[in-house]
Amino acid sequence: MNSQNAFEGLSPWGELPHQRGTNLLTEPLLNKGTAFTERERDALGLRGLLPPRVFTIEEQVERTLMNLRRKPSALEKYIYLTALQNRNEVLFYRLVLDHIEEMVPIIYTPTVGQACLEYGAIYRRPRGLFLSLNDRGHLAEILRHWPQPGARLIVVTDGERILGLGDLGPLGMGIPVGKLSLYTACAGVHPYYTLPITLDVGTETEALRTHPYYIGIRQKRARGAVYDEFIEEFVTAVKEVFPKALLQWEDFGNTNAFRLLSGYRHRLCSFNDDIQGTASVALAGLMAALRLTGGSLAQQKILFLGAGEAGTGIADLFVTAACAEGLSETQARARCWFVDSKGLVVKNRGDHLAAHKVHYAHDHPFIATLTDAVKTLRPTALIGVSGMTAAFTQEIVATMAQINKRPVVFALSNPTSKAECTAEQAYGWSDGRAIFASGSPFPPVELNGHRHVPGQGNNVYIFPGVGLGALVSEAREITDDMFLAAARTLAQLVEPEDLALGRVYPSLTKIREVSLKIATAVAEAAYRDGLAGRARPADITEDIRSRMFNPVYRDYA
Q1: 403 and 547 housed in the same domain
Q2: 398 CB-contact burial (10 Å; exposed 0-12 / middle 13-18 / buried 19+)
Q3: DSSP string spanning 409-450?
Q4: Which of 172, 290, 413, 514 has the least C-beta neighbours within 10 A?
């Protein structure tokens, strides 16, 4: 048996290595555990290394699900699933895909936040690459240590802004690992081609640096030229070692996120999910909400709590979309207002505004509080991307409901503990009229005999499809127009039955078809704009579908 025959059709972008016996059982991409057939056990030297009974993958999923549900906490479930992923990836993804609504909150938000906080204590087995300042001058060499030489999809973080939890340094590795798991589960990107990377440049969190279980270098976070030179070496090394790779910047601090995206997006096929992915999913929610509120996108007035990566990213993409509806850039920017930690972002506030805020600093009297900003500006939509728990008070939500027949209230901060308000609060304080979405999941709410199902404005609806479309088309660049196309596609996929429940996003059970349609839209843009590295196929959708990883066992013998 050779690897090409064994894995024919499993991956459109390459092949997996040949293994036998115990080596095969320790390779998570190849291991089938008790599902190896009698013939495979004889052919691959597995006889006696496994219990005699042969199980189907369906039986394995049932047994795994039973054991998972016995775990007493979400963190224990996370640890259990991580161990499964490191043992048998096909079974892991079959379980996740079959029970996606139950599994996503465990393998990603909100549980991944707690997992990152305790990453040093729960660390079991390495997954991905850790590159530290101590490795300067050798980054390309270390990238070649990765056992899959054809990596095509890299998610990288420097751990400075992990969700709403702050600077966790290399403890943030749970984020790249989780994001790449979602790429495979939700969009069918083959796990063989995924590579999570954490850049350890230190941390400002002293409690971590002195903690006995801290896994990173014990120094304050590098800034300035030292940091920039390290990033430059990293990007250069990626281009050299993995020339066809797409790189996703993840959970970088505001100071670096915007300039890294701006500086490298044209040199390396890359995007920042916190800026562009969040923007796309939030814009899709706003577009879908218009089917309930009426009016056009260009007529909306949006008030953001939080003026960092997520908020300004949403505003920038809103401006792009509003300009497409006929507004000038100046007119479109005038529809977006920001409240940050110091109050309303205006021209005459007196403090030095970060560059990404300047375009949204309007000529208006300063307002100190969010409550007063809502009363004065009378927005149609209120979007929370601040990481400030319970910042949307009863007075604020009630005021939004007085101003708007159907107020749009998006509490997008992650994890759940950082949400600006809960679904129950948003519906209760608005007499059930709020159109609510959140970053982390909330359960349905029964109010006045009506069932409200909150939408989850989770980037999982966007980034897997965007990445898949870029990979299949071999896009040289990922443009803002691609994220706008993704937002429009997602909004169109919200069904009338979703809207009837107040949900402005499709059910997560449809995520593979959602990702396929978004990938098609992104690839279409790449082919149209001359950014694709391969010829346009006759049927883009079917070309992409044929390349999606499906977690089923292959016959090896």
Answers
A1: yes
A2: middle
A3: EEE--SSGGG-SS-HHHHHHHTTT--EEEESS----EEETTE
A4: 290
Is the distance from CB of 211 to CB of 166 less than 8 angstroms?
no
Cβ contacts of residue 110 below 8 Å, gap of 6+? 74, 414, 415, 416, 417, 440, 441
Tokens of 262: 């701006």
323-369 tens-digit pLDDT: 999 999 999 999 999 999 999 999 988 778 888 899 999 999 999 99
- Please give the Cα distance from 500 to 163 (Å, whole number): 31
Which of 268, 300, 326 lies at the terminal end of a domain, its last residue? 268
Question: What is the C-alpha to C-alpha distance for residues 310 and 273, in angstroms, rounded to an integer?
Answer: 9
DSSP for 82-98, written as a single string: HHHHHH-HHHHHHHHHH
Structure tokens at 46: 């597995």
Residues annotated as catalytic are 108, 179
Whether the bond between 415 and the residue before it is cis, its omega within 30 degrees of 0, is yes
Read off the CATH number of the domain in which 424 is found.
Answer: 3.40.50.720
Residue type, 464: P
Domain that holds residue 297: 275-557
Over residues 214-224, the pLDDT tens digits come to 999 999 999 99
